[in-house]
Amino acid sequence: MSRKRRREKAKDLSADMQRCLQLLNTIQSRMDAVEFLEPVDWKGLGLDDYPKIVKHPMDLGTVESKLYDGKYKTIQAFAKDMRLVWENTMAYNIEESEIYATAESLLEFFDKKFEGIEEFVTRKKEKESKEETPAPPRKKSKVRTSEKKPEKEEKKSEKKQEKKKSEKKSKTPTHDTAKWKECEEILKSIMSKPEAEDFLYPVDWESAGLHDYPKLIKKPMDLGTVETKLQQKKYKTIEAYADDVRLVWKNAMTYNIEDSDIHQTAKKFLEMFEKKFKKLNKSIVSDEVKIKKEKQKFCDILRGIESNQKLASLVLMTQKLCPSAMEMKQGKEIVIQISKLDSTTIEKLMKAATED
Q1: pLDDT tens for each residue of 124-144
Q2: What is the rounded CA–CA span in Å between residue 66 and residue 29?
Q3: Rg over CA atoms, the chain
């Protein structure tokens, strides 16, 4: 299969299976995995007892083909075949042999890395479960329908509820879905690359014996953590998101020497990210300039409206679409804070203002 075809097939894989593919590619690139890349040629090697001992042969190349072809329905099915590669080797070869030790080492490496994939899938399922859980049914009121509140008290209660709704709506931060979606796409495109494997999870410095890591890296960061924060909308601005992504690469470049592969890979990813983020930032600035011009145009239109009925209609419309932009001055004067209007509201108000 050509490299181009592999990239195309990889895009069709689910997020779970893409992580499995990244782990598989990492193992395939190891020098000690060479013996496990293709099926065992037991006939050519004269291993006539091999089929009697190994009932279900497996190799990394076959796992890769099944992965690209969508044969694995769960990450557990993928893991089962991966483990089978080394379990077969350990079943056929004696414990003192070099190939047995290599298989044991690779199995241990796989299990450790696979834990990170399982954690990712668990977090994702918990998130989806929360989103899909229906709200509990509302209890019926014990108050009889014939029993009404006094008219004054009822109106007061309605006004209070309206005020709470307005305050809640005004405090809700605006979330430009298109821009955040693009941030997700940038992150996803980076995470899907095989060479990004070392940056997907937090650095396990204790197991790796990197005891000086916490002294040099004060704020650890990894792409998986960025992805989680992005999905949970923890970032207030796209700059905060960008700072965390940069931190992933900068930490790697700080800890590792310049000539190392990991330093150079991090440097390459940092440059790639900056290029993509610059393009995104450019579009945001362009949108902001456009919105500013639209707001100025709306101000000019408002000044030219002589009909009190038209003005009252626009005020009511603003109150409904963007209550946070409304301000009541002394003497019952109503002021529309144009700077607080979002682009969608501006567009609707301009359309209403110019209609005959």
Answers
A1: 777 677 666 555 554 443 333
A2: 18
A3: 30
Residue pair 16/114 in contact (Cβ under 8 Å)? The answer is no
CB 317 within 8 A of CB 348: yes
Instruction: Say if CB 19 and CB 118 are below 8 A apart.
Output: no
Please name the residue that has the structure tokens 């704020």: 219
Q: Which of 145, 219, 200, 273 is nearest to 19 (CA)?
A: 200
Query: pLDDT tens digit string along 222-279?
Result: 999 999 999 898 998 888 999 999 999 999 999 888 878 888 999 999 999 998 888 8
| DSSP annotation string for 120-133 | HHHHHHHHHHHHHS
Distances in Å between the Cα of 144 and the Cα atoms of 73, 148, 283, 311 are: 54, 8, 57, 42
CB burial class (10 A; 0-12, 13-18, 19+) of residue 192? middle
Torsion angle of alpha carbons 232, 233, 235, 241, nearest 10°?
70
Q: Which tokens belong to 299?
A: 């101000």
How high is the pLDDT of residue 251? 93
Count other C-beta atoms under 10 Å from residue 147's C-beta.
6
Cα 256 to Cα 213: distance, rounded to the nearest angstrom: 10
Q: Please check whether residue 199 is in contact with residue 269, taking contact to mean a CB–CB distance below 8 angstroms.
A: yes
